Amino acid sequence: MLLEIDDVSLLYGRIQALHGISLTVAEGEIVALIGANGAGKSTTMRAISGIRPVASGRVRFDGEDITKLRADLRVRRGLCQAPEGRGIFPGMTVLENLGMGAYTRRDRAGIAQDLDRVLELFPRLAERRKQHGGTLSGGEQQMLAVGRALMSRPKLLLLDEPSMGLAPMLIQQIFSIITEINQQGTTILLVEQNAQQALARAHRAYVLETGRIVKSGTGAELLHDPSVKEAYLGVA
Amino acid sequence: MTTVLERVRSGREAAGERWRGAPRWVRWALLIAVIAFFYALPNREFYQYLGPIPTPGANFTQVMFTVSIYVLLAVGLNIVVGFAGLLDLGYFGFFAVGAYTVAVLTSPSSDLKTLWPWLLAVPVAIALTMVSGVMLGTPTLRLRGDYLALVTLGFAEMIRIGAVSSEFLKGQRGFNQIPHPPGQYADGRPVFGVLDARPYYWLVLTVIILVVIGVRNLTHSRVGRAWISIREDEDAAQLMGVPTFKFKLWAFAAGAAIAGLAGALFAGKQNFVNSQNFELLNSIIILAAVIFGGSGNIVGAIVGGGLVAYMIERFRGIDLFGVQLYEYRFLFFGLVLVVMMIFRPEGLIPNRRRAAEFKDRRKEVTVGE
Ligand SMILES: Nc1ncnc2c1ncn2[C@@H]1O[C@H](COP(=O)(O)OP(=O)(O)OP(=O)(O)O)[C@@H](O)[C@H]1O
Ligand SMILES: [Mg+2]
Question: How far is the CA of A37 from the centre of ligand 2 (A)?
Answer without folding.
Answer: 7
